[in-house]
Structure formats: structure tokens, C-alpha cells
């Protein structure tokens, strides 16, 4: 399983290539990354920080 940091880095890399249409919320414990090709979602990745509510 990828770390949250590696998923966020991959998301920013994909934003730079124009592969991902997304909204990034930084005040939450989770992230969803959708890869879109030809107007269809071709990949979905998500991470949830289970320790966030205890910090």
C-alpha cells in the first residue's frame, strides 16, 4: 500500500501532465485521486489517515 505522501506526490505529478481532474481538500483526513482518459475514469486511488482524529 502506498503512503499518503507518495499518493499526494503522484497526484501533483499527474496534475502537471493534465491526466487528472480533481479537487484537493487539505483540511481532511482522506484523498481521492481519479485518473481520467477519454472522458472516463480509468483509475481511482484513495487514502485515509486513520490516526488523524487522534492528533
TrEMBL record:
<protein>
    <recommendedName>
        <fullName>SnoaL-like domain-containing protein</fullName>
    </recommendedName>
</protein>
<dbReference type="InterPro" id="IPR032710">
    <property type="entry name" value="NTF2-like_dom_sf"/>
</dbReference>
Amino acid at each position: 500500500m502506498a503512503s499518503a505522501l507518495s499518493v499526494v506526490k503522484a497526484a501533483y505529478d499527474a496534475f502537471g501532465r493534465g491526466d487528472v481532474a480533481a479537487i484537493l481538500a487539505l483540511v481532511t483526513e482522506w484523498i481521492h485521486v481519479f485518473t481520467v482518459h477519454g472522458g472516463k475514469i480509468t483509475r481511482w486511488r484513495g487514502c485515509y489517515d486513520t490516526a488523524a482524529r487522534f492528533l
